[in-house]
């Protein structure tokens, strides 16, 4: 110890160097430079030790900032983004800075906003939106976009949106299922996504057309049911699900639907209704977009011939008298069963009659053989 006059006053000084701070700012990397909240960073020193009380985790506030106080001057802080805000691309390139005493050091990070694509599906004739159309969306390498193996379906507004896509990504968008009544347009469209922009891509579906076939009685214009037709395209391919077969209903009609515009149909009657003459002359029609075309076929009703053979004196019917009945061109008239009679020969029955039904045309009737006792 020091005592007496020889004692000197010794002064000991303890100094505290002012601590430093770090301000991290997070902004959008576009023309707006908006602050981004909710972005998570990992902060460590140069030795890898975590800063703060949450294993080095810090999150930007509403102003897009993180302020860390009480940092030792001379230390190096390494900041790395570990979770981006929704709609922005993660920038996980770390930045480092050396802390100075009594200073607020600043690091700025920017996030590029993601882009998107709005796909719109419309009727090519009316521009009305079409719902329930299915698309496949991939990148050029065939990788699926979205969470459903690349599948997207248009909503009631005829649209769907592909969101959170990195700028400069090229998307390949292809229709895979059209709505009923429309032609599938499976030609893909490609689009390059832009930062912070939703690009609109429009697809147009051509509505299919159809033909209404109407069958009527040529004499009365009444509809004829149960008439059979064969319908093919110009290449001979069957139309419909029954090998091209269509039959008129109780209104004398049938409808051919969902036909691609521009398709030429050939429609031919193959079976007439009983009591009518078959008209097997085909009609052709070219289908138009979103239009129902009407074709009319007319059937000539068949007639009949009744021959009565009587005794000229007693008016008694004569059975067994033979007649030859032909058409004016010499062809034979078919019998009731639909088969040709023998050389057009018919014989009167017990009532002295010959009755031929369901025929049409000019007939030639010649008596060729009478019965004994008559001339």
Q: Could you characterize the architecture of this molecule?
A:
- Helix content is 0%, strand content 43%.
- The protein has a 4-stranded antiparallel sheet, with no helix packed on it. Strands 10-9-12-13 form a 4-stranded antiparallel sheet, with no helix packed on it. A 4-stranded antiparallel sheet has the order 17-16-19-20, with no helix packed on it.
- It is built from no helices and 26 strands.
- With 375 residues, it is an all-beta fold.
Provide keyphrases for this structure.
375 residues, 26 strands, 4-stranded antiparallel beta sheet, 0% helix, mainly beta, single chain
Short account of what is shown:
The chain is mainly beta and 375 residues long.
> What's the main sheet like?
4 strands, antiparallel
Whole-number radius of gyration? 47 Å
Report helical residue fraction.
under 10%
Low-confidence stretches: none
Strand content: 35-45%
Mean pLDDT: 89
**Helical region count?**
0
In total, how many beta strands? 26
N→C terminal distance: 181 Å
Strand numbers in spatial order across the main sheet: 3-2-5-6
The assigned structural class equals mainly beta
Which term fits the overall shape?
A: rod-shaped
Q: State the order of secondary-structure elements, H for helix, E for strand.
A: EEEEEEEEEEEEEEEEEEEEEEEEEE
């Amino acid at each position: 110890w020091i005592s007496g006059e020889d004692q000197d006053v010794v002064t000991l000084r303890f100094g505290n160097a002012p601590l430093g701070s770090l301000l991290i700012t997070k902004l959008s990397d576009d023309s707006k430079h908006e602050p981004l909240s909710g972005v998570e960073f990992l902060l460590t020193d140069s030795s890898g030790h975590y800063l703060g009380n949450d294993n080095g985790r810090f999150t930007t506030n509403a102003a897009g900032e993180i302020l860390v106080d009480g940092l030792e001057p001379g230390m190096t802080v390494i900041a790395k983004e570990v979770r981006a805000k929704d709609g922005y691309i993660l920038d996980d390139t770390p930045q480092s800075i050396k802390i100075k005493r009594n200073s607020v050091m600043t690091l700025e990070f920017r996030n590029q906003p993601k882009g998107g694509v709005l796909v719109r599906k419309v009727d090519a004739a009316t521009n009305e939106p079409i719902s329930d159309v299915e698309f496949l969306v991939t990148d050029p390498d065939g990788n699926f976009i979205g969470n459903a193996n690349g599948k997207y379906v248009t909503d009631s507004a005829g649209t769907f949106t592909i969101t959170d896509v990195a700028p400069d990504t090229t998307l390949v968008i292809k229709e895979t299922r059209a709505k009923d009544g429309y032609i599938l347009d499976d030609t893909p469209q490609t689009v390059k996504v832009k930062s912070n922009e939703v690009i609109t891509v429009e697809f147009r579906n051509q509505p299919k057309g159809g033909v209404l076939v109407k069958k009527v009685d040529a004499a009365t214009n009444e509809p004829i049911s149960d008439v059979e037709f064969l319908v093919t395209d110009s290449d001979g391919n069957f139309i419909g699900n029954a090998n091209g077969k269509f039959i008129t209903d109780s209104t004398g009609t049938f409808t051919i639907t969902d036909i691609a515009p521009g398709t030429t149909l050939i429609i031919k009657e193959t079976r007439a209704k009983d009591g009518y003459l078959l008209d097997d002359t085909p009609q052709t029609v070219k289908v138009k977009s979103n239009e129902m075309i009407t074709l009319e076929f007319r059937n000539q009703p068949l007639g009949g011939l009744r021959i009565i053979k009587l005794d000229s004196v007693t008016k008694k019917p004569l059975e067994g008298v033979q007649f030859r009945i032909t058409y004016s061109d010499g062809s034979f008239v078919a019998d009731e069963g639909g088969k040709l009679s023998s050389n057009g020969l018919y014989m009167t029955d017990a009532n002295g009659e010959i009755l031929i039904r369901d025929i049409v045309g000019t007939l030639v009737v010649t008596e060729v053989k009478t019965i004994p006792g008559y001339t």
